[in-house]
Every structure is written in structure tokens, then in C-alpha cells.
Amino acid sequence: MASIDDLPEGLPKYVKDYAPIVYLHSKDPYRPSDIAAHLANTSPKHNYEPIAFSPNLETLSRLNGMGSSIYLASNDDVTTDPPWLKGAQLDANGGSLDAKTAAIIVHDRGNDEVDAFYMYFYSYNLGSMVFGQSFGSHVGDWEHSMIRFKNGKPTAVWFSQHAMGQAFTYDCLEKEGFRPVVYSSNGSHANYATKGNHDHTIPHVNLPFGFLMDQTEKGVRYDPLRSAYCYSVTFDGEVPSFASYDGATPTDWLYFTGRWGDKTYPDSDPRQRNFLRLGIRKFSDGPTGPRDKGLNRRGICPNGTSCWVRPFLMP
């Protein structure tokens, strides 16, 4: 049974006390997924060609030397909706039983400033719905919230949303006790600070109506603390070095630079289709992993991202 008491010693207490609570959409069939199980149900490929190597959490980064762009491709035809894409079963407390579906990565920036990244993993992302059809679906989905602490107190929170996101002051957010609430959108798992509709057609602007709509609600409670691997990260320049708090949890998988899903299927693949001859495809590339999520960012938002830390709640 997943328990907060199982978290390793050394993980800062405030990282646990202020960890987000995530609410999944009740109709979302794709729940948080066990990271190791995802590796067991995928195989590495380079330019669609199989690589004769079966990685696990302790060997995944060896793929970095086997090609410039490695993809963890599904062993099953995703259009058959194999059960492993649906993720792990959640218990009454929001934990994912014996599955590890999250990673907590702590970056001590110095000067009493610490960034805590709460990474949520899903084996499948259902793309946006347009005219009753999904597009941009992909195997593998990494989303995250980041809390910046000053002297052990939270100051601001980042919510990842597709290739972008939003930042809010900690004080303005909805909370359960001290823990900020995150709403995960139906299918795409983009993170929002409020429930309801969120259109993401315009970069950095979310509206309650529009063409590309995410939907959130206070559905199924997910507590990543009960299902997480826990790490610290330091940097030599921009090169990360990861360490597990218990000294035993595998760290190798965090160094993987490839993609956690299939490479975009060619247009000739029968599973693929174009929408309105605009080059919009039903399936897209799988995502990169945690090391590519701006762990060494200067501000609350990833480096190079326009950033407004909102002092009030909004879509």
C-alpha cells in the first residue's frame, strides 16, 4: 500500500508538506502510469528501426549512444487501446498502489532558494478534439508542477500545459491544507490552477471558450507523494547530476535524452491521418523526459519562456 511514510529520509519536509494534490478528470481513461512498466511495454527505435536492446530503469541512458534520436515505441498497436496505456489503479488515498507514477526532483539553487519539481507520468496522451476527432495524440506524457521555495516557504507555482504553462503565486491558489490543488485536463493531462474549460489556441492565454479546449474538474484525486521516486539534482554548468535520497533508487533513467513514445507515424501509415489538408496529424512524437523540463531555470517559468506570475486565479 502506497504511503507518505515510505518517502525517504533527507527529502526536505517542506517539499512533502506543500506537495501538490492533482485532480484527474473523471472521464479520463488514461491515468498516471508506472514508469518501469512503460519501459517493459515499449522498445527502442531509431528512424523506425528496432534497436536490439531492452532497457530498464538502470540501463535506459545507454540508448543515448545508439543514435541521435531514440524513441520508446509501443510494442502494441495503440489504436487497439492496450490495457497498459490506461495506467495504474489508484487507491482511496490517491496513491497508485505499488506503481511508481511520479518523480520528485529537488534543485537547491543556493541563497536559501529551492525548486521542487513534481513530475507526473502517463503512458498515453489523448490529443485535442476537433470536429469529434482527436489529433496530436502520442505514447508517453510527462507533465509537472514546480514550486519555488524561499527559506522553506512556497512563493510561486508553475503549471505545465502542452509546450507552455502558467505561473501563479502560492498564496492565490486553491489548497487542501497547505497543498496546492492542480487540475489535470481530460486526456491531455495539461495542468491548470482552476477547474472548468481552458482553450489553449493562443500561446500563454487560456480562455473558457475556443478551438483547442482542455477540460478539468474535481474528479479523481491523485496524490503523487504516495507514488514517487525522490531525487536531488545539481548542475555543472547546464549538465545535470542526479542522486536518489535513499541511495538505492535507480537514477540512470533520468539521463535518457530520447523520447518516451513513438516517433510520429508516416502519413502512409494507416493509423495516421491529416485534418483538412493542413498537415495536422492524428499522432505526434512522444515527449522528452524530466531532464528536459527546465530543471535549472532562472525564474518560475522555464528559461526562454515569457513569464507572468499571476497574483490571482484565472483559467
What can you see in these coordinates?
The chain has two helices and 22 strands. The model has no long low-confidence stretch (mean pLDDT 93). The chain is globular, with a radius of gyration of 19 Å. With 315 residues, it is mainly β. The strands form six sheets. The chain has an eight-stranded mixed β-sheet, with no helix packed on it. 43% of the residues are buried. The chain has one domain (4-310). Helices cover 3% and strands 36% of the residues.
* Gyration radius from CA atoms, angstroms: 19 Å
Question: Main beta sheet: strand number and arrangement?
Answer: 8 strands, mixed
Amount of helix: under 10%
**Principal-axis shape:** globular
How many strand units?
22
Low-confidence stretches: none
Report how far apart the termini are.
35 Å
Q: Which sequence of SSEs, written as H and E, runs from N to C?
A: HEHEEEEEEEEEEEEEEEEEEEEE
Oligomer: single chain
Estimate what percentage of residues fall within beta strands.
Answer: 35-45%
Give the integer mean of the pLDDT values. Answer: 93
Task: Decide which structural class fits the backbone.
Answer: mainly beta
What's the tally of helices? 2
Output the strand order for the largest sheet.
Answer: 19-18-5-6-9-10-11-22
How many distinct folded domains? 1
